[in-house]
Structure formats: structure tokens, C-alpha cells
Amino acid sequence: MSGASLLTFARGPAFEVALAMLIFGMVWRLVGILALRRSRDYSEGRKTAGWVSGLRVIFSRSWPQAEFRERVLHWDIVSYLFHLGYAVAILGYLPHILLIRNLTGLRWPGLPGGAIAFAAGIAAASLLALLGHRLTSPVLRKLSNFDDYFSWFIAFVPLITGLMAYYNIGDSYQMVLGLHILSGDILFAWLPFGKLMHVILFAFSRGKTGAVYGRRGAAI
Amino acid sequence: MKEETGDETVLDVLERRGLTRRAFLQVCAAVTSALALSPAEAARITQVLASKPRPTVIYLSYQECTGCLESLTRSFSPGIASLIFNDISLAFNDTLQAAAGEAAEEAKDSAMKKAWGKYVLIVDGAVPLAENGAYCTVAGRSAVSDLRHAASGAAAVVAVGTCASFGGLPYAAPNPTGAVPVSEIVRDRPIINVSGCPPIAEVITGVIIYYTTFGLPALDRLHRPMSFYGNSIHDRCYRRPFYDRGMFAKTFDDEGARQGWCLYELGCKGPVTHNACPTMKWNGGTSYPIESGHPCLGCSEPDFWDKGGFYRPLSVPTGHWSRAGVMGAAAAAGVVAGLGAAVAARVRQDRTHKPDAGGDTNQKTPKS
Predict the structure, then answer these.
(1) 3-state secondary structure of B225
(2) How far, in Å, are B167, B280, B290 from residue B211 at the CA level?
């Protein structure tokens, strides 16, 4: 397949299928979770408004607890670097903004290409460091399965191909751009079906935990 | 005498026309400059044009709009254009020549016979294959059979324009005539694709001169000369700094457009288009489409008609399906699947343990 036909495929049918899978998967998982039977709490609530604790926990769990801070803080920082770099690269680059505008009608000003490349470089380096940590930590290695590695790969490829396209690395720009968009399509399609769904579910799981324990009076 | 035997060189022709050797050297220098060759190559061009018999060029037109020939005849390098039309033997071109009908066909057959195996065949336009090639016939013969015959006696084939190179407009979906590019018919001769809709005049003439002087130029994977198609429009665009700084025109008449900012958002295909427009420019180096405020259409690339719209930015999906339909159907299917999964989970819960009256139904029975 030539670069031109790959690009046309990635921008055309592949994107449509990926978008359909993204929406289907997200709705399926959210409805499936939200429609589950709720457990009843027979104890008298220490607080009447557990949802306030739920909201607080969504944010308070974004930073390591004091007990663990010394051990994990540097990996949290690396993780933040990845997430922030990824967000800047996705939301700050005009070609990406134009895609979002096409889908939602929303738009905002873009950042200079150099800033985007820097952010993407930081995100890629952070991802590599996090993979190294996962592979070298016996505990993390035991906890990891195919989903973890595949999700890592699916998140990493768009970064690298995007940087390659920006710096015009590779024999054919069209091929590199086509691979970049196709890898983005695969990321869209896979997102709801694996651990990458945490981009949405983290708020639900933290909120639920915070609300339950807050109602019981736990200091969280 | 040399004229009769076909051994006449370009220098011979020029001398016969009363041009001095100095004028000949000036033409060679102009050719070298237009081809962006090193000064050392000027000597080689001079030597070749002065010693080798002048090549015969046959120009055939099929499914095309004559835009490429219009471009060629409006070359702003008179030295090179003159070299092509007067000094290199343009033996047949049905649009330019005075002869018509049977006389024209005889002229073509005679020129081909005389230089069989040695002439340069220039093809302009795509070739239709549907209905046994009935959609384009020349002198009662289908274009495909005409091309096969002409190509079998050619030393090389130069496909001029995107139609001849990649199919172009006739090849665009739904391609009712079954049009194909020259390369799908001629497979046993070297092919140089000079794509563009139309190609820049100096690029067409430059390629012909280069081939007649040095032979086949270095080609990219689409068989286009690297010297003219080696860089993308984006790489050489004078608006590139605005792209890098994130400054884009949003409409054709906003402040960004007036300030000459990047046209990516207006659908510019410069990043994926290889051509010499930003360096050679058009109309004698006056400007090129982007300089005139219009995004690049990507006309020198294959399938440029079918890439989802000229004014749709490159990063935006081509959107052949109904976006609302796709998203709505996917969301509806997601709701059904989610509710189904939740109901299945509840049924499983009910089956795996007996709920007490008012008991916690989420409490699973411990495994023994």
C-alpha cells in the first residue's frame, strides 16, 4: 500500500470505524456500569452528603498520600509529565484541534509547533521511563498483563509517528502521516475496551470510593 | 546532408538558423540554470548538444484538456522552449502542427519509422480501457492500441501531466471510462512522470532537455524526477514559518489571510504534495497558488481529486459516511449492549445466591 492510499484509508473508513468503536465502547461500558445493581448500606451514615467526599476524592487521589510519597513521588511526577505532555500535544496542535472542531464544533487557539514537539518528546520519554519501571519492578511486572503492554504500545506509537511526521523523518511523509493517523484510529478504537478507559472511569471509581467511605465517616 | 540522414545536431540546426556559437552557449547556460545543475554540467550540455544527433520527440494526446500543452507553450524560458520546438525535432503533435487528418497520421508514422527505437514519446492524458478503449479514439484507432504501438518504438516515455502520470481527472471515481495512467499500459520502457495539473512549463521542458542530454534522471518512487519533485511544497513554502509558529488563516479574507499566514486550515495539501511550485513558480517566476492566497490542491499527487475535498484540512477525516448516522448508531448499539450486560450481571447475581428479604444482593456466597 502506498503512502497516499494509506493516508486516504486512515482519514476515511478507518477513522469512521474507529469513531464508531470508540462511541459504542464508551457507551457500553458506562451504561453497563451505571446500570449495575447498587449495594445497600444498612449502617446509618455519619455524613448525609457522601457525594461531597466523592468529589473531593476525585482530586485528592491525584497526589500520593504522605505515607507513600517518598517511595512513589518521582514516578508520579514522571506519570504527570507523560499525561501533561500528551494532553498538550493532542489539544494544542492545530491539526488535532481541526479534527476536534470537525467532530464537535469546538475550537481554540493552537500552540507553536516547537512547543508541541517539546511536549510530545517529554511524553514519549516519560512513557519509555514508565515502561522501564514496569519491566524492572518485580511487583509491577507481576501485576501487568497484555492489556498494560498493549495499551502502552497503542499510546506510544501515535507519539512517535507524530514526531516523525513533524520532523519529516522517514522516506515518505505521506506514509508517516498515514501511520500516525492510523495509529490514532487504533487508539480511538481500543480505548474503551482496555485499561485506557481510565481516562473516563477514574472519576467514577474515585468518586464512588470517596462517597461510600465518606458516608461511613472515614477521613479521606 | 546531415539533415537528410538524421545526423544533424542541435548546434547544426542553430548554425543553419544563423545563430552564433556564442548564442548557442547562452542557450546551454540557460538550460543549465533552469535545471538547477552545477556550472560544470553546462559544459556537458554544450558538448552533447553539439555532438549528438538531435532527438526526435513525438507528442501524443489522449484523455486530457490540453492544459499541459498550454502550459508548455507558455514557457517563460524562450531559450528552452525554442530548443524543444525548433531545435529538438518535435516530429508530431496533433494540436500544434498544421497538418490534419490522414496527412497528420502519415507524418506521425513516417517520423516514428525514421527514428524507430530512438525517439522520446511524450504522452499527455489518461488512456481509457472500458468498452475496448472506445471512449478515446484517434484516426479510428483506440488510444490504448495507438499508445502500445507508439511506445514499442520509443526509447523512453515521458508522461506529462497528472492524467498521463496517475490517471488524473478521468481516473477519478467513478471512472466511467476505465481510464488508467500510461504506466499501466507501457511496462517495458523507461517512464518519467511529470505530474501536475498542469505541470510547470519549465519542468516539462527541463525534463525533456535533461533526458535528451543526460538520459534518465534520478526518479522518486512515483517515477518523477527528483530534481523537481524531491521536496514537498510545505518544505519549500515561504509561509512555513507561520505553520511552525501556529499562525493560520481561518478564512480567505481574514486578517491572517491578508498577513500571508499558513493556509493549512483552509485545506492546503502542501505537506503531502511534491512539486517545484515554490522554487520554480509560474508565469516566469511570478508566483504560485499559495503565494496568490490559495491553498495547494495537491495536483501533482495521485488521486488528488478523490482525497476528501480541496478545502478540508489534511488532518480532518474525509467523511464519506454520515457522521451523525455513525455516531448515533454506535451510541444506540452501546446503550443496548450496556443494558444487556447490566441485566445479565443482575441475573447472574440472583442465580448465584439467594437474596434475603431486604438483604444485600451484592453479597456473594463465599466459595468453600
Answers:
(1) strand
(2) 23, 19, 30
pLDDT tens-place string over residues B291-325 = 999 999 999 999 999 888 899 999 998 876 777 88
Q: Does residue A98 sit within a domain? A: yes
Within a domain: A67:
no
CB A98 to CB B331 under 8 A?
no
Which residue, among A168, A113, A114, has the nearest Cα to B235 in the 3D structure? A168
ipTM value of the model? 0.84
Range of the domain at A169: 1-9+93-214
pLDDT score, position B265: 95
Look up residue B214 and give its three cell numbers. Answer: 543526460
CB contact under 8 Å between B315 and A99, yes or no, is yes
Q: Which residues of B touch A5 (CB under 8 A)?
A: 303
pLDDT 10s digits, B200-246: 988 888 888 888 778 899 999 899 999 899 999 999 999 999 999 98
**Disruptive mutation site among B315, B316, B335 for chain A (greatest number of A CBs within 10 Å):** B315
Q: What is the largest CA-CA distance in chain A?
A: 68
- B2-229 and B233-306: identical CATH topology: no
- B201 CA: distance to closest CA in chain A (Å): 25
Residue A52 falls inside a structural domain: no
Residue listed under C-alpha cell 492524467:
B163
Residue of B nearest to A37 (CA): B346
CATH architecture of the domain B2-229 equals 3-Layer(aba) Sandwich (3.40)
Domain B233-306: CATH superfamily, name plus number: Cytochrome-c3 hydrogenase, C-terminal domain (4.10.480.10)
> No. of H helices and E strands in chain B?
18, 9
On whether any CB of chain A is under 8 Å from the CB of B327, the answer is yes
pLDDT in tens, B251-272: 999 999 999 999 999 999 999 9
Q: What are the residue boundaries of the structural domains of chain B, listed by start? A: 2-229, 233-306
- Measure in Å the smallest separation between the Cα of A201 and chain B Cα atoms: 15
Chain A residue nearest residue B316, CA to CA: A99
Nearest CB partner across the interface for B337, out of A28, A102, A109: A28
Q: Are B94 and B104 in contact (CB under 8 A)?
A: yes
